[in-house]
Amino acid sequence: MFLTFPIMVIRVDTIEKTIQWRLMNMVYVGLGSFVLSFVWHYLLAKGVSNRKVRADDEKGRMSFVQRVASEKRLSVHAIAIVAVVAVAFPFISSTYQTNIMTTALMYVVLGLGLNIVVGQAGLLNLGYVAFYAAGAYTYALLYYHFGVGFWLALPLGALAATILGILLALPVLRLQGDYLAIVTLGFGEITRIVLENWNEFSFGPSGISGIPRPGLFGMELGMQEAQIYLYFLMIGLCIVTIFVVNRLQDSRIGRALLALREDEIACEAMGIDKTRVKLTAFALGSTWAGLVGVIFAAKTTFVNPASFTFLESAMILSIVVLGGTGSIIGIVIGALVLILLPEYLRAFSDYRMLLFGIIMVIMMVFRPQGIVTGVRKTYEFHTEDDKIKRL
Amino acid sequence: MSAILETRNLSMNFGGLKALDRLNIDIPPGQITALIGPNGAGKTTLFNCITGIYSPTAGDIFITPPGGRRKQMTGLNIHRVTESGVARTFQNIRLFPGMTVLENVIVGRHCRTNSGILGAILRDRSTMEEEKSTVARSYEILQSMGLAEHVNLLARNLPYGLQRRLEIARAIATEPFLLLLDEPAAGMNPQETKDLESLIISIRDEWRISVFLIEHDMRLVMGLSDSVYVIDYGEMIACGTPQEIRQNQKVIKAYLGEDVSA
After folding, report:
1. Do A131 and A31 fall within a single domain?
2. Which candidate, A93, A90, A120, A115, places its Cα nearest to that of A259?
3. pLDDT tens by residue, A130-157
């Protein structure tokens, strides 16, 4: 407080050659620092008590979302409400709202895809956007050169991304942790730079425009209908993704991924082919990015390399981390929050990114483990009825 | 009776250091064989060479599975070694700490099951049947290991002694004919060691799995083993029954030093 004295209180007016004593400022500084230190101590205390609670018991700290998810009756109700809202959404809100919701849903799928690689197999991938770009450019180029339609491009885009995923996985098989992160980061950037500079192939920074939106049984859709159609398409893809990812998670393959994350050498000693599991993880993860990439191209009707910067990868990774690594519901919520928040904060115009940043920092202070902690489904064994029940 | 595992002139160098020097070891079937030696003698290195974590500088490793043919195993990948029927535990326990006890054993069944991605998504009948039998079999193994009451516990929350036990259970789940145990009694109290002794005997007699173990607890080794190998500085200095080893001058020298007059 006293250190700030010369700056805050004394003001030398050089024109009139007088000194102003702004004593009220002193009070403000005192009050401000008092409040800040109070908040600081509160947060520290909160952190300590949190840690205690965590050590105490694992079930006690189940959040609201987890409780909804784990109790069957509650979750049925929750799903019903979400379904009704999701179906009604495009009809009760504006095209703009539908549009950003479609974008958010795209990030849900991207997040779930990346989660296979990062959350389940524990392989940090910072170049995920490359697979997204692969999907988008597959559709764009196939349309431009051969007039291939959306529905044919969808599986082809996924295939292209999968192949790219395997190609990336091959050289990085031996890498772990930081090194893997650096290589994947580089891979993502290389992809973008190639797209930017290889004019003959990708038409450089100007990109490819005039990509058609998906048709509905040959009908020509107007702008607004097309948006709604895309929205439902994304809802469908989300459901399929959640369904597939969920089933993969508790299967033989899912457990192998998990074992790989937990202990690589022990995993191999269990007779699990590390190479194959890693390739599978990358392939499975990038397939989703490819699918979403095709839809992205169809949605914006235009692709250029500027859409596939490192920032996108970082965004998708934030979704996974913020939502709660390894948790499907967490990632869905994380994607909705991270994508919708900046949009709805537009009301604060210039300050929206600042607010967004503050919210993220607060989030990480209070829930560093993510919105929904990855309390995995575990196998419960009950001898009475000789059945496995999944919690 | 031919050996189920043979090493022939097995050598492993780390730079200028000879960790293993032309080792010839035969593991007979249906027996408990122990490997002892002072710290840094190369015991764990030998295990790592056999299980494919290191590839040896020179020499060969052969296995002869019961009812199978003798085959070269040098330089196989770790998972291939497990597939061929040689399982191991680790000196510093390597469980999957964030998975439950049951799941740990289920992962051990991985190389004996084969449902793939498509099966996982579609959940067709054969996948579900395999899943069911995997769980049942894993539970059976845990039951016979005395871990049945802990099936749903996370592995990291298991007491230390039981973690060792779980690691053995997980290794057995891979259906080996030879089990390598790397210091299974390390850090155990006398009671736990005693339980471990009867467990290892039951592995030999009931599971019919041959055991090759590294151990520092001499009472355990002498009481348990059918034969003992002693290595020091990567060289074999003695082999024989526990009785013979106890009286071997070289062994006494290696453990107690030159100037001891016994």
Report:
1. no
2. A120
3. 999 999 999 999 999 988 888 899 999 9
